[in-house]
Amino acid sequence: MLDYLIVGLGLAGLSFCKQLEDNNKSYKVINDGSQTSSLVAGGLYNPVILKRFTLAWNADVQLKTAMPFYNQLESKLGVKLDCKIPIYRKFASIEEQNLWFEAADKPRLGKFLSIKIIENNNESVDAPYGLGEVLHTGRIDTKTLIGAYESFLQEKGNLISKTFDFEALIVEKEHIAYNSLKARKIVFATGFGLKSNPYFNYLPLIGNKGELLTIKAPKLKENNIIKSAVFIIPQGDDLYRVGATYERTDKSNSPTNGAKNELLDKLHTFLKCDYDIVDHVAGIRPTVADRRPLVGLHPKHRNIIVLNGFGSRGVLIAPTISKQLFDHVEKGEVLPLEIDIKRFSKRFIAKRS
Predict the structure, then answer these.
(1) Taking phi first (over 0 means left), then psi (-120 to 50 degrees means alpha), and beta for anything else, what does residue 53 get?
(2) What class does CATH assign to 2-40+143-206+289-352?
(3) Collapsing DSSP states into helix, strand and coil, what is residue 179?
(4) Which of 80, 254, 308, 340 lies at a CB distance of 3.0 to 4.6 Å from 335, suitable for a disulfide?
(5) Where does the chain hold its CATH 3.30.9.10 domain(s)?
(6) pTM higher than 0.90
(7) What CATH number has the domain spanning 86-136+208-285?
(8) 3-class DSSP state for residue 169?
(9) Could you report the per-residue pLDDT of 42-59, keeping only the tens digit for each?
(10) In the 8-state DSSP scheme, what is residue 163?
């Protein structure tokens, strides 16, 4: 009898696996690689919403948990994951500079915003009003992280690389059975794949498609992340990620010319050097109407659990939320109401009636 069966190995599933590892719980993971949002993500951890100069939801608290979390994974997996890179916000006007200074005076936000306006010295970037530096930021290499964790699970014999079959799931009062496996609990961390989950398809998961380009720009020579109409994220070897788009209607993982042209149009508003496009990827972010995660126990089957809805800030959110879920299930600690799926109990009742 396993303690847990985990379905999905994006940031949500992986972060919960780490909680199980840290607490000596037995588990296996079923993953078919169909959900790509964690793999193609820019991987930024940034506590500030740079469109409005406001603090992202609980970002200051989440950051304190996230950094030790990823540092421990680096040691455990023997890979480099955390690239500490400043984010420079390009100012479009003097008025934006003034709004930046106003935001820097706010208690929780001020420690993340430098009050020094940085003069732009990069001839390949058009920034006549300068740049503002966001502090305590960086990039997690999510593709390396997930690949390394898959290898770790394979070595332990804990990874089943198949599509989950709901018809094979048998739910008993004290455990679940799946083919030849038995576990006390099952956790679904399948990203946008939750839409086809018969136990949780009442939840208002919307899904938001994001597309990113990788460009090679030898003349750019930029070591910092630049945020203007889009992000430019250094990858090394003159490569840069450019993103991202937000599309609500198209729910496929296929890159589109429309999104590519949108990204290039925005990029051309401030990039002034030549480049070549070397890659174009897409994925569906698991977003929710109220912009809060979907976490908790099924209303009827208490051994069926969901961990989902991290949206575009999964790198920052996952370590904190996975711990809150583990402490809720194993220690009886109360989940914050803003993330508990109990907030959608009326939808569950309506779907059953």
Answers:
(1) left
(2) alpha beta
(3) coil
(4) 340
(5) 86-136+208-285
(6) yes
(7) 3.30.9.10
(8) strand
(9) 899 999 999 999 999 999
(10) -
